[in-house]
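Section 5.1 Outputs to date
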Amino acid sequence: MTTKEVLAQLEKMGSPSIKKVYKNHGAVEPFFGVKVGDMKTIVKQVKQNHELAMELYNTGNSDAMYLAGLISAPKEMSKKDLQHWIKNARWYMHSENSVPWTAAESN
């Protein structure tokens, strides 16, 4: 699955009501408002995929950035990769979930 395909799936899964909730909790545009549980269908398809995780995180789309944490391959993350993720975390779902999960299991 490519980054473009994942973004298209995320867009289809997005919900205006979830987007509103995320905005109220500090989410920053762009994002679609995808439930975490719905993202897990994508996780099942792509499994751990370091390259895709890096590409998704670099899109700047908050949903894609969170998904990147779910599919990251922590053992393949370099210190530079993790620093990039930390520097670009846009709201607490990234800084308190995606980044720490990946960092905790990385070398």
